[in-house]
Write a structure and sequence with these properties.
About 35% of the residues lie in helices and about 15% in strands. By secondary structure, the chain is of the alpha/beta class. Helix 3 links the parallel strand 1 and strand 2. It starts with a helix and ends with a strand.
């Protein structure tokens, strides 16, 4: 077994490298490597993928042997986790904490560059009532790190959800839930202060947007250009919901007189696909959020309250995970498909920022439906009016399809039918999404065709309703949509 002396000698160079990294970097971007799937590449392949994209920080949700081994000598900093189900044992049995550290850290460190332990995940909302074990578990694990002289290199914290806040709006009024202040937050923040650790926070602006889309604009949630929101409490103007959420946590800590504890955002992201009721879940929006966030972090900007703060942010997640339970969005947060192809293209390093134009409504997905030939997205008339209308509303709303031409009086308003309008909107979304995989689905309300759809393919179910049908001019534009200002539209006559 390794001794404390041998480990100390082995990590001397590592500590110098870490010091240089911390002082030279103004912001750091990492990724969460979840594995609730049955089709993911091997851990060694994952390391190769990460290195090929210069991703230097990764967080995992356990301490899996194959993963820790694969990251050996990779140069990637790793945050490992003690799952919620082990909190009781780590809190009540010091021997368990010792064995856990020996097995999952000393066996691999420093060749596997473990920099932090996430003790549990969103424990304060854990339905199994593990909150009372959180602080004792953190203290027991820290005591073992101290014993082996690793506490200066490996920090301990626990990711909290924003639901731990009793108030988050305006940001300056941010506060923790009253019932959690004395038993949890005061002792935890004191522990973090004494050990030089950061508060880990999981922040998802999409959830706030979905619950308050009547007052929160999509541009504000996606870091796009917007007029901003003024905080009445401090007079600061916020241009992103992410900043407002993080500053609400800073305000909550300030209220307890803990202003010297940094924040690490251990999870944040945006799904590239969701159910019809999951507002804002799309490839374009996911690319805009993650791309603009990456740009913001990599260029070193803090928050309005702490403009000089160094933020470390972990995007959620590395892969789409096909075995995650819950709504469709839960399986579509990944930056990559399991085949290691990008879901969409965003910058992950300073070098990749060159020429990046984030924030637009035409974010560029990478994966294509067809490798050759033209494809179009049309309405599935068999889907029913309810599903078609919902999908049409989504495409013209959060999906950011260009639906101006099907408004009353516009070029392609006629034929004024749900199928015609839906087909126009679906194809606009599909073509602007660069024909990305999954961008012509709309929960079964759409289908792909690989040739320009004729009126009989597209409108055959309407034939019995009309005595004559005539087509005036070309029926579609080969580049974008069924109707284009330079063309005429299908015209139905009674």
């Amino acid at each position: 077994m390794k001794t404390a002396k041998s480990i100390t000698l082995a990590i001397t160079l590592l500590s110098i490298t870490t010091l240089v990294h911390v002082t030279e970097c103004s912001g750091s971007l990492g990724v969460n490597y979840g594995r609730i799937a049955n089709n993911l590449p091997t851990p060694s392949s994952v390391v190769t993928l990460l290195k090929s994209h210069n991703i230097t920080r990764v967080k995992i949700y356990d301490s899996d042997t194959s993963v820790l081994t694969a990251f050996r000598n990779s140069g990637i900093k790793l945050t490992i986790s003690l799952p919620n189900e082990h909190l009781y044992s780590a809190a009540t049995r010091s021997h368990f904490a010792t064995i856990w550290v020996l097995k999952n850290i000393l066996t691999y460190f420093p060749h596997t560059d473990i920099e932090a332990i996430a003790v549990g995940n969103e424990v304060l909302v854990d339905p199994h009532n593990t909150t009372t074990y959180l602080l004792p578990a953190m203290r027991n694990l820290h005591s073992v790190l101290v014993k082996y002289k690793l506490h200066s290199y490996i920090k301990i914290s626990s990711p909290i959800a924003l639901s731990a806040l009793g108030n988050s709006y305006p940001s300056s009024a941010g506060s923790f839930r009253p019932e959690l202040i004395e038993p949890v937050f005061k002792p935890m923040l004191e522990f973090l202060k004494q050990t030089g650790s950061a508060l880990m926070v999981n922040a998802y602006p999409i959830f706030a947007y979905q619950g308050n889309s009547d007052v929160i604009s999509l541009d504000y949630a996606l870091f796009r250009d917007n007029p901003g929101v003024v905080d009445a409490g401090n007079g600061l103007r916020y241009f992103s919901l992410f900043d407002a959420q993080i500053d609400a946590v800073f305000a909550a800590m300030h209220a307890l007189n803990y202003d010297d504890i940094p924040i690490v955002v251990t999870e944040t992201g945006w799904p590239s696909k969701g159910d019809s009721i999951e507002l804002g879940a799309s490839v374009a929006n996911a690319a805009a959020y993650n791309g603009n966030l990456a740009k913001r972090i990599l260029t070193g900007n803090g928050t309005p309250v702490r403009p000089k703060a160094t933020l470390t942010v972990y995007l959620f997640a590395l892969f789409n995970e096909n075995k995650k339970p819950g709504p469709t969005s839960e399986r579509n947060y990944g930056l990559f498909y399991p085949n290691e192809k990008k879901v969409y293209d965003i910058p992950l390093t300073i070098e990749a920022l060159k020429g990046y134009q984030g924030g637009n409504h035409n974010a560029a997905p990478v994966e294509r439906v067809a490798s050759s030939g033209e494809t179009w997205c049309v309405a599935n008339a068999e889907a029913g009016e309810g599903k078609l209308q919902g999908a049409l509303d989504y495409a013209c709303g959060e999906g950011a399809a260009d639906c101006r031409q099907i408004q009353p009086g516009a070029t392609c308003y006629d034929p004024n039918t749900l199928v015609a309008h839906a087909s126009f909107a679906f194809n606009s979304f599909y073509q602007k999404s660069k024909r990305a995989l999954g961008s012509c689905d709309f929960e079964g309300a759409a289908l792909l065709v690989n040739h320009p759809p004729s009126m009989f393919l597209y409108f055959s179910h309407f034939i019995s309703l009309f005595h004559n049908i005539r087509i005036v001019g070309p029926t579609l534009s080969p580049l974008y949509n069924y109707c284009n200002p330079s063309f005429n539209c299908l015209v139905f006559l009674d």
